[in-house]
Design a protein that fits this description.
Belongs to the TonB-dependent receptor family. This protein is mostly beta strands. Helices cover about 5% and strands about 55% of the residues. The chain contains four helices and 52 strands. The strands form twelve sheets. It has a 22-stranded antiparallel β-barrel. A five-stranded mixed sheet has the order 8-15-16-11-12, with no helix packed on it. The longest helix is centred in the N-terminal third of the chain and has 19 residues. The radius of gyration is 28 Å and the shape is globular.
Length: about 800
Amino acid sequence: MVIKKLLILCFTCFSFQLYAQERFTLSGSVLEENSNETLIGVNIIFPNERVGTITNEYGFFSITMPKGEYEVVISYLGYKQRIETIILDQNISQTFTLNESLESLDEVIITENVEKLNIKNPQMSVNALSSSTIQQIPVVLGEADVIKAITLLPGVTSAGEGASGFNVRGGSADQNLILLDEATIFNSSHLFGFFSVFNPDAIKDLKLYKGGIPARYGGRVSSVLDIYQKEGNNKSFQANGGVGLVSSRLLVEGPLKKEKGAFLLGGRSSYAHLFLPIFDINNIAYFYDLNTKLSYKLNSKNNIYLSGYFGRDVFSISDSFENTYGNTVVNFRWNHLFSDKIFSNMSLIYSDYYYGLNLNFVEFDWQSGISNLNFKYDLKHYVSNSLKLQYGLNSMYYSFNPGEIEPSTPTSGINAQDLIKKYAFENAVYVDAEHKISNKLTASYGVRLSSFLRLGQKELNIYENDNPVVFNPNFQIYQQAKTIGTESFNQSNTIKSFANIEPRIALAYQLNATSSVKASYNKMSQYLHLLSNTSSPTPLDVWAPSGKYIKPQLLDQYAIGYFKNFYDDAYSLEIETYYKDIKNRIDYIDGTNLIANDAIERVILNGKSRAYGLELLLRKNEGRLKGWLSYTLSKSEQKTEGRTPIETGINNGNWYNTPYDKTHDISITASYDINKKWLLNANFLFQTGQPTTYPNGQYVYNGISIPNYSDRNSTRLPSYHRLDLSATYTPKPNKNEGWQSNWVFGIYNLYNRRNAASISFGENRITGTNEATRLAIFGIIPSVSYNFKF
């Protein structure tokens, strides 16, 4: 009888505890009030309980709490804070809307609790920029530019003025994964680097991952630039754009069906070439691009999106030469909510990069490119407030066209020729976890299992001992090996396969309410290689897959950092140090010719690279004067040793600077609100000169002066620095309806610094002596643009 009473008592206590711990979930989306655009990274905070969450890439959130009545704070930088009272006695799905703030700055400061969550977040080596910030940064020719903006961040540099792409932590441009609405962009530049392919008016969210990269990303070993386009206004029609000296842009958006579906259409074009005939110049250089997006809400649990980008550059010299290149991407996405805790996204993506040359003076056309078809399926599982899982799979099919030559006229003496097309299949599965281990310790960890199949091709060269590059000990040089035969494969065959396990982990330990230390480790694989022997990519460069003779690049990266907020979050400080080690980084033998090379393996050697450095970012987040100071101290080196004791390797097997090594990199970016009508912006840059190879002597042979070159990349161009200014004038700053506009006046390179893009050496035809010639692209450039919105 006593035992029976004890059992009844225990059961009663257990039932009481179960009821006391009864928990319910608040889930939903956060939208922008005027357009119903989903907002990414919005904070949903339970301030009294000191817990919260943020919206994901599609504006969805989920948080589970014990039964009760709560005050909920919804806040997002640049928007009015919203406070709601929620009675949580059942699972609730709710949509919150936020209004863009037109109040004074003090009304839009992120609350203290939000900053505490950022301190606790294990994510590190990540930078985010808003579209408004990008548009305020002074740039060349007055055109707002995403790529130029991110080079003002620590650890990010460019190869110089007029150079394509960007370099992250000493890596090359091809080691950056660039995504636009999840679709891969293979060339991020217009007009050979003067502009980027991203229209800032169409951008909703931008994040640059330099380290601590989540397991959902893969395929590159340096960074991930993840950009999402706006979805369109499903409430009302609106448009915005701008007119500049060399280019203009227009973006329109509106409802397909009010509060259910929306469209977005944006276009840009340059037109400076239209004025060239005035100066009797027959050359042409211009670009145009188009951003599109359709979104539709099927019901409360299903949304579909169709987005696309199309861009082209055209460059011609008189009637003898024309160059056309650009990207095309299309993405269909389906968001599905399985429950208030499981969110899914399925994407079917097509991406293509095309490069074409019409060489009329020799009467033939050249075409090359790369395309891929990508299937992604991702799920985010809100297991609890202390554990969130993200898992999924990714499959990509690649088609590589190294080049096609066709005669352009019936009388051309050129024979049609196709370089051998290549095919590959890249697959991955992953799982990511964000885990709050204790009040002070938070972890993000995961693993990615990737595989790469080099598929069959029409013809593959065979070499003695499978060695396509041989060493000539007599001349101490590497030479292309002779083929001893070929083999053919069906496209369904696998020539070579690779598989790699890529673990990721990041930890954050909160020291106090305003500071934390973080550490991360990444292992990543890259199966694609951009074949280029220039310091920055050019449209003529060709992508090649790993295979029988080319190994995938393998990265190990370690980072540790200290993060602190000062003076009620008015200032923030980030200090990080990192070390990167990369295996199988390719380099080229001396005298390499990459153009129309159908046996690229005969000029490639596998080496390794390393990069390490210290990054500092000090931000001022509030007040009339805002901005940041960025400083990077770094080293980036490469090493290609001999494969046998008698081989010299490259640079005698010693470490040598990569073309992306910049010892010092300083950027200062500032904006100052003079009053409601005038805003001043400025940025100053200083970078150590780019490594290069100079001749260190010469000798005369048969009356000809022949230079003798120093070790590879052992010398540098002069240091790079410049100062840019801009002023934005808004005639009617309080107007928030109808036609709204502003003027932007800018000066690029204020003190007219003639920064060297390159220094070449040659013989002076008059004196017969060797001399150096410096090429500088930009001096001082004023600009003016008019921006509007209605």
